[in-house]
Design brief:
The chain has about 220 residues and is mostly helical. The protein contains 9 helices and no strands. Helix 5 (about 100-120) crosses helix 7 (about 140-150). Mean pLDDT is about 80; it is low at about 25-30 and about 185-215.
Amino acid sequence: MSTGVIIALIVIVAAVIAVAAVLTMRRRGPQHGGSLKRRFGPEYERTVARHDGDTKAAERELTERVERHGSLRTRTLEPAERDRFEARWAAAQERFVDSPREAVAEADRLLSEVAGARGFPEGGQYEEQVSALSVHHAHHVDGYRRVHDGAQAHPDTDGAAGTERLREAMVEARALFEDLVGHGRDGHRSADKDGDSRTPARGNDQSWALNRRQAKES
């Protein structure tokens, strides 16, 4: 076989490999994005919106979160720990009737503490803690953001509307709290396709509905 033929074969093989690599990358691109979208759900949409619709930038950020926190190993709460956290949450929920803002501040502290107890970054690293939670509890992590913002904000001047926003934040945050104190092997409750907890909290849902009607303006 002549040198010219050998060179031609090498060029052909290299070209075939290059084309195959390009096609593979094209196939992986949408699947990668689709995988992130399925994994993060509403957190994916929130991140895209925060990047002004730039999906590539959003996916880079979410991929980096997975790389940083995806292998995090959490610990299951001891029954006594779980009971203490659940009792404190129930008390905060009841407190909402008279002191909505103080109840939200307690919910913020509780989420920070229970996440730290499970093995997530400590609450003093709020942004890092939320980032890690978004990888493992993407469907509910925004509730934590809402109670944290409510706890940090100055008292609202719009009365009932402000109180209602705090109530909604508490309701949304409770889903994350239930995930974190869950009774499953990995500390997660079973969830439906929308990521909603199927297991009710220990707190009385009827009393929470009463809180909604009777909570005083803060």
